């Protein structure tokens, strides 16, 4: 099977962002399929390609994946207008590439939602070719709930694009129960939706000893003593990291100078967060630049607690599948989580961390104090995290599920992983 795979933010483990598409593409290749990855450029991502672009494209093969990099530089610091322009340019150029390439399945993954545009138009040009769309975040539902996009015309346009994508696709993939539920609502009956959440790179985050282009990257120094609690990922509106700084303030008021809060990543709100720590004397908070994924795995093995933080928006409760959660449990870290939903249920149900109510800095601080004062509890919860990763979220297990689902779509056969949400959620 020839798979044309669209992911604008694709990265190998040498980049400082998620690697789901890299791992899934490699699994497809291992099953005997040919994969061509169409992606963009990002200051956090690393495609593995070097050299000058020719006619705006950089092409090559990395770890068996044929990659076509559309050289459109993307950054979260760009304005919404500039990012929208880049998204549309990528979609248009992606469509032009699809017209030239031969394939059996076009598989596109969001975000952004515009990643599905090549699939929509190719259904008109090559109606016999299969199109599967993977949803990582529900658009426009999440931006609307966050208040990031308020213009009714823009929201209406995004809704129309979402509906056009659902109408064009043969089947879909969602990364969380809420995403699958939202897709079922938009798609209606007759199209299969598989839940394949983000997964755990078990060897990478436990005992990986390989080499990479990032081998010489120098990891930041950790505080030599005390409880080291880490947050990894974007520092944006959705992440609600002011809640952690509120907890840091409570810790200082309680004279718990032995608990350190570490932030790794980047985003529009990072300067604000850093300035706040200066203004309020929160020297228990330390900020670091993004770390290549392959080195982040090494870094996580040196810390004590993973922090799962999101802004208190109900749409997040069941509608996200954050990479950091799976990185934490892969590393055998106990987790402190500050929002309800399916991940909070996994954490408490498997006794691999502590879930506290949103907007409660005292409860968050108390949970960190509890873990700092009870090393046996930390150890037990960390072991439970790793067991959960191995049992439920092995990347190999989930990749096999995705590949089987895509093969079934192309063959137009029933697939075990396309069970109804009510059955699937009981498994995941």
Please specify the SSE layout and strand pairing:
Layout (H helix, E strand, L loop, with lengths): L1 E5 L13 H11 L3 E9 L14 E6 L2 E10 L5 H21 L4 E5 L7 H9 L4 E6 L5 H6 L5 H17 L2 E4 L2 H11 L4 E4 L31 E6 L9 H12 L5 E6 L5 H10 L5 E4 L4 H8 L4 E4 L5 H6 L3 H8 L4 E3 L4 H8 L3 E3 L5 H13 L1 H18 L2 H17 L9 H7 L1
Parallel strand pairs: 1-2, 1-5, 2-4, 5-6, 6-7, 7-8, 9-10, 9-12, 10-11, 12-13, 13-14
Antiparallel strand pairs: 3-4
What does this structure look like?
By secondary structure, this protein is of the alpha/beta class. It folds into two domains: 2-199 and 394-427, Glycogen Phosphorylase B (Rossmann fold, 3-Layer(aba) Sandwich), CATH 3.40.50.2000; 227-392, Glycogen Phosphorylase B (Rossmann fold, 3-Layer(aba) Sandwich), CATH 3.40.50.2000. It is built from 16 helices and 14 strands. It has helices spanning 20-30, 80-100, 117-125, 141-146, 152-168, 177-187, 242-253, 270-279, 293-300, 314-319, 323-330, 342-349, 361-373, 375-392, 395-411, 421-427; strands at 2-6, 34-42, 57-62, 65-74, 105-109, 130-135, 171-174, 192-195, 227-232, 259-264, 285-288, 305-308, 335-337, 353-355. An eight-stranded mixed beta sheet has the order 3-4-2-1-5-6-7-8, sandwiched between helices. The protein has a six-stranded parallel beta sheet with strand order 11-10-9-12-13-14, sandwiched between helices. Helix 1 (20-30) packs across helix 15 (395-411), helix 2 (80-100) packs parallel to helix 3 (117-125) and helix 7 (242-253) packs across helix 13. The chain is globular. The model is unreliable at 207-211 and 413-428 (pLDDT under 50).
